[in-house]
Amino acid sequence: MAENKTYWKSAEQLKGENPMIDQLEQKEFAEQIPVNEFLGDSETLEDSNTSRRDFLKYVGFSTAAATLAACEGPVIKSVPYVVQPEQIQPGVANYYATAIANGFDFASILIKTREGRPIKVENNSDVPVFGGANARVHASVLSLYDVQRLQGPKSNGSDITWEDLNLQVGAKLKALAVTGKEVVLLTQTFASPTTSKIIDNFIKVYPNVKHIVYDTVSESAALDAFESAYGIRALADYDFSKADTIVSVGADILGDWQGGGYDSDYSKSRIPHKNQGKAKMSKHFQFEANMTLSGASADIRVPATPSQQKNILAHLYANLTGTKISDSLEAGIQSKLDKAIQALKAAGSKAVVVSGIQEVGAQKIVLAINNYLQSKVINVNTPRLIRQGNAQEVASVIEAVKKASIGGLITVGVNPVFTLADGAAFAEGLKKLDLSVAFSLKEDETSLASQYTAAVPHYLEAWGDYEFKAGNYALAQPTIQPLFDTKQFQDVLLSWTGNSQTYYDAIQENWSESILGSSKWNKVLHDGFLVVENSIQNNYQRADLAVEASVLAAAKSTGLELVLYTKTGMGDGQQANNPWLQEFPDPITRVSWDNYITVSAADASAAGLKNINVANGALNGSYAKVTVGETTLTLPVLIQPGQAKGSVGIAFGYGKKEGLQEEMQVGLNAFQFYNEFNDVQNVSISLADGFHEFACVQLHNTLMGRGDIVKETTLEVFNTKDKKYWNAIPMVSKNHMEEEVTSEGVDMWQNFDRSIGHHFNLSIDLNACTGCGACVIACHSENNVPVVGKTEVRRSRDMHWLRIDRYYSSETTFDGDNQTKDDIDGLSDSLSTFGEMEQASENPQVTFQPVMCQHCNHAPCETVCPVAASSHGRQGQNHMAYNRCVGTRYCANNCPYKVRRFNWFLYNQNDEFDYHMNNDLGRMVLNPDVVVRSRGVMEKCSMCIQKTQKTILDAKLEGRQIKDGEFQTACSSACSNGAMAFGDINDKDSEIAHLKENDRMYHLLESVGTKPNVMYQTKVRNT
Amino acid sequence: MLTIPQLFAQESDPAAGKKLFNANCAACHKLNKKAVGPALKGVSSKYDREWLYAWIKNSSAMIKSGDAQAVAIWEEYNKSVMTAFPQLSNADIDNIIAYTDYTPPPPPPGEVQANTTTVASSGVSNDLILAALILVFAILVVMLILVNKTLKRIASASGVELVTKEAKEPRRPLWDAFVKNHFLVLMSVIFLLLSSAYFAYGYLMQVGVDQGYMPVQPIHYSHKIHAGANEIECKYCHSSARVSKHSGIPSLNVCMNCHQNIAEYNGEEDLDNGYTKDFYTKEIKKLYAAVGWDEENQEYTGVTEPVKWVRIHNLPDFAYFNHAQHVQVGQIACQKCHGPVEEMEVMYQYSPLTMGWCINCHRETNVKVEGNEYYAKIHEQLSKKYGVEQLTAAQMGGLECGKCHY
Questions:
Q1: pLDDT at res. A68
Q2: Rounded Cα distance, A533 and A536, in Å
Q3: What's the pLDDT at A36?
Q4: Candidate from B210, B251, B385 with C-beta closest to A82
Q5: pTM here?
Q6: A723 and A595: one domain?
Q7: Which pLDDT does position A45 carry in this prediction?
Q8: CA of B400: which chain A residue's CA is closest?
Q9: Distance CA B54, CA A394 (A)
Q10: Does A77 reach chain B within 8 Å, measured CB to CB?
Q11: Closest-CA residue to A475 (of A128, A213, A197, A100)
């Protein structure tokens, strides 16, 4: 019967004796799933792989929870102070004068703080010297909020308290003092009077301690030469604003040469002011190997290898002193040198010769020449004190550490394991010492090799006093409470000597005793500087330099010469973990996030090295094996127009690994080639496999005769010809009549009356711009511009609101380009000639052009926006309402200047872009007055509307008119060279109104008819 | 309120004394509690009257002269000198002492009794009336049912046939007729669509608009008491509204400017909402806990707990608003945007804070140019251009996107 029929599934079931079968029939699962046990035990949960079912459960629950949570608006808490500090008003910025002195950069600056957070560096324009911050100093505020900073002292890698550290190190110091074993205190250059005093006292207590100053990038030769000529270990100071003729033999006077900071004075002598119809400006000759900022700005630049530079200096010296040299120079160089000598002689005491050759003999000869010229440009009476290192002493310390023949080493502000050519051997020796202490901001290579790491505060959290230049003092004050458990080196040293004083007390005591005089402490602290009249006369001690001259004259190169240099963005690499500086494109090569070997086109083709532009336009370069002595590095090659044939260049500061986020660990360490602290080395290069992907922001390097972008002329033409000849307004044809593009009738647009109220204009003087890039970083910092990283930059998605375009000439001069272009005849000729013009000349003229939103009065971007997110204000600013933007990018496509930037991604709080905006500490640097843009919106320069509005509001609150000079943008206030001027052209007496009427004034791509509110001043070269 | 019986008036007057006390003494003294100085209740029994005259008129002279009592009290209060009051006459001091000695007589027992009973009886009577009414209704309902029942019984007994619902001829249902009428369907669909669009639009437009947002704050701070009853100027506490973009939530030290002396609430109560004197006094204690004020010893303990207020007015990040511009330059009353704050027991968002609301005001409000040198030139030129006497904020450029969005 049907009811009795059973279906069996297995033989076991048929037998019917197995209890297991029963169990299986009753329950679907043999055992209960141990959900509770599993979810309750966090350890198992962490270890186990979540099953698919669990996964779905979690997803379902969290989605539901998230949806529910999203229904309610967030509750925002506001926590006021318990006791509000008197000087802090929420929403109002406070400025403090302080100073940076990190051993490489020295400057007096102002710090803008909001609600107690330092957010921006400003120039301290009241300071007579070192008041201008360079790109690195502007970026240093972000280094304060570096998550990789040391958060407290350490002992052999594990945390320790300051009390224990002081006890343990103190005991070891005492033990070493008893045995009399030497302890070396290896420090950066402090240029700090009170620190010197504290160190002297320390040495009195521990006589076995020896203080040695170590400059990572040495200026020892110049210091030695000055010492022998004037009896003081210091560097001559120069005032290039007084110069009529400047001859530089390998000195990057606009870069970091002898501490840098010369560019603002230099620029003063470069602006041609017409006086009774005749304009004057200085004439600058530059003999150099690498293409530098100085070479780019020079009137006559001559590529010369380091050994040629030595010959040039010898010939210069011989010619001026009337001695004879048997060897002769290359004809091309000789003719340029003759011109330089002629100009030197013509300028009399307003001439100066400088050199960057790291040889004592060469530096002695430079001093002798300037003394011979009776140069007023050089200043030996108040010399610079910002480099004090002694290469010989440092070399002896290195030997001693390697042999472990000293008892201990205390390093302060230096990282010798990374910055010495044989750092690895040094580290080995360091580990064998009885005592090793590293005072450091980061857990860097040296602190990892040391027993103790003393965490020091960032300079914005610290006190300090400095004497940058004899008689020129600066005070540094903290602008924020220390973020971490850090102590200043000076404070620690005071406690090691058993002194209960703090560094702050010591500074005050020292100043009231020997520096302040009749000045008041509070006044100096407020101003940040003090200038004490110095009547010391340093007399030149004449010496016979015939031997030195003949050594220089006999210098010959054997093969390629490597010239090591510091980049504008990275310097000596102290701030390698600063994303602003990593993303800052080098002013010359326009490459960011890298170092590389620069090679001349001739040498590159001889070695088979190539640079190619790949399909998306990005730049690729061959790798080259670079060998100096026994060290070989494989570096990418960048073919550099203007690089002297027979020379190559590599930048310091890259290749650091310790205390550095992974994203920033780019490039290779060129300090490995820095043998005997000589920046010139014999090198051999050979082609290596593969291609390197550069993140280069400028893919087209030449101007190709497009005179409406950069207008350039010579001083002679400027003085003799009419404006129409060298700065003509483009003509258009209207009704078959030639008419100026700016004339009323040509315009398709209705003009808007802007004569009432403010009308902002920005003027950029191409003559004064040295390409230093301080404005780029200042803009970053003021406007919360995001960092996008190397791969995005390579895709041309960099977000810089302000870029500095660099153009090379295809012929030897830009004039030549124009000529070549005009001479083109016919289609086939034009195709081939333009093709050739894409290549820069072997020694091109270079020009820099800062480009930001031009704030066109007739803006092409505004008309194409479908949602009216881009609109024009009466004050001349082109507004961008981010919250209105829907991201069509029509505006960017219609912009002739390509200054609009699109947020392809969310660049804040996004792990894909792990830079400062992705952590709480880094976000502290954000400017609260400027919104942080989100994904999918267009952004661009706002002409710092938050700053102009603030200036207007301040005037309204005080019920007064606005004075000329009050209106500033971030870039114009960062420009210490006077290249950028900003103001209200409706104020007829203002500087900007005069600049608008200047003969040199022109607008970028004037022929387009956009009527920009940014204007440029034609570059005049004194060739 | 004190009602002063006549018999005191002859010698010294506690009412006049109260005035003098509040004007001169209350900053540092309280009647029953130690403040900056000692509690003054019953001070006349502690010290000789002549000694008190001399002390109040010039205490430091007494301390210098080495008066034992004077030195003792000086040392007890951390050697802080009491302000001298040479302007007070002996009679004034008598009045003050009379006030400090005065204990209000307990109200006559009968009166109190009567009062409470009336209150009680009125409460009871309300309930009673309610109960009586309910009873009456219940009786009525029962009666009606009974009547109905009886009538039905009578009807059935007398053979009257009750009309029951007949099965009528099936009529066309209304919905069917509606569906068949295409015009009507079309119209109602259009109507439905339009009305739902209207409501959807209305719903979407209020997303993110928190008008009326009235969160519970960690301390029940009553603007009604501070700005209303005590007429404290808004910018006394929100001082940064004068100079900054933020109006600022006052730091706790600002509260303590007054609350160092005001430890308990003695104003009006709102019993319906439970805002009793005790309730308010407890809130003041929360402030003391937060700021770390030790009431007993009249000193700060240094242990603080910042108050986490819930922010009510939240502008989005991309909108820039500056209080100083509106409050100081524009001379706009705080109430214009924040509403009748002086009547708000609990603070809430009065205005929608939408862009349309901002723009409307900019269109209607004239720029305050009088006496402001900044506007002198621009206002003259612009008003000539627009042909108006007074420029609105909009004409001044207050509608430009970039003025608020950057």
A1: 56
A2: 9
A3: 63
A4: B251
A5: 0.84
A6: no
A7: 57
A8: A873
A9: 79
A10: yes
A11: A100
Contact A294, A252 (CB under 8 A): yes
Can you list the positions of beta strands (E) in A75-132? Answer: 77-78, 94-101, 106-114, 117-123
Report how far apart, in Å, the C-alpha atoms of A581 and of each of A100, A467, A589, B166 are.
17, 27, 15, 95
Per-residue tokens: A320: 């001026």
**pLDDT tier at B112 (50, 70, 90 boundaries)?**
very low
Return the pLDDT at A10: 72
Written as six digits, the tokens of A266 are: 């230099």
For A755, name the nearest residue in chain B, comparing CA atoms only: B381
Token output for A967: 């209106």
A chain contacts of residue B248, beta-carbon cutoff 8 Å:
80, 89-91
Flag whether residue B311 sits within 8 Å of chain A, measured between CB atoms: yes
Continuous segment of H or E residues that includes residue A946: helix A945-958
Q: Which of residues 202-241 of B touch A (CB under 8 A)?
A: 208, 210, 215, 240
Interface ipTM above 0.95: no
The verdict on A295 and A441 lying in the same domain is no
Residues of B in contact with A73 (CB under 8 A): 208, 210
CATH number at residue A503: 3.40.50.740
pLDDT at B115: 43
Q: Does A961 contact B374 at a Cβ distance shorter than 8 Å?
A: yes
- A93: which chain B residues are within 8 Å (Cβ-Cβ)? none
pLDDT at B1 over 60: no
Residue whose tokens read 């627009």 = B386
Q: What is the pLDDT of residue B120?
A: 42
Q: What is the mean pLDDT of chain B?
A: 85
Domain count, chain A: 5
On whether any CB of chain B is under 8 Å from the CB of A957, the answer is: yes
Q: In terms of residue numbers, what domain contains A627?
A: 578-696
Per-residue pLDDT of A120-144, as tens digits, reads: 999 999 998 898 999 999 999 999 9
CA distance, residue A819 to nearest chain B CA (Å): 45
Between chains, do B397 and A871 touch, taking CB under 8 Å as contact?
Answer: no
Residue A362 C-beta-side C-alpha neighbours within 13 Å = 27
d(CA B214, CA B209) in angstroms, rounded, equals 13
Angstrom distance (rounded) from CA A111 to CA A93: 10
Query: What is the tens place of the pLDDT at every residue in B232-268?
Result: 999 999 999 999 999 989 999 999 999 988 888 988 8
Chain B contact set for A946 (CB, 8 A): 320, 406
Which chain A residues are within 8 Å of B215, Cβ to Cβ? 75
Same-domain status, A926 and A1003: yes
Gap between the Cα atoms of B159 and A750, Å rounded: 100
Low-confidence stretches of chain A (pLDDT beneath 70): 1-4, 6, 16, 24-25, 27-50, 65-73
- Among A22, A46, A70, the domain boundary falls at A70
Contact residues on chain A for B253, CB-CB shorter than 8 A: 81-84
Q: So what's the pLDDT on residue A682? A: 94
The pLDDT of residue A49: 63
Name chain A contacts of B318, Cβ cutoff 8 Å. Answer: 881-883, 931
Q: Specify burial of residue A375 (Cβ count, 10 A radius: 0-12, 13-18, 19+).
A: buried
Q: Which residue has the tokens 């704030």?
A: A855
* A873 vs B306, B309, B402: nearest CB: B402
Taking CA A699 as the corner, what is the angle to CA A765 and CA A843, rounded to the nearest 5 degrees? 65
User: Could you tell me if A357 and A322 lie in one domain?
Assistant: yes
Is A929 part of the contact surface with chain B (CB cutoff 8 Å)?
Answer: yes
A942 and B376: CB-CB below 8 Å? no
Interface test with A, best of B243, B401, B403, B404 (most A CBs within 10 A): B401
Do A122 and A783 form a contact (C-beta atoms < 8 A)? Answer: no
**Which residue in chain B has the smallest CA separation from A947?**
B406
CATH of domain B6-101: 1.10.760.10
Residue B326's identity, in one-letter code, is H
A276 touches B at CB < 8 Å: no
Q: Do A938 and A1011 share a structural domain? A: yes
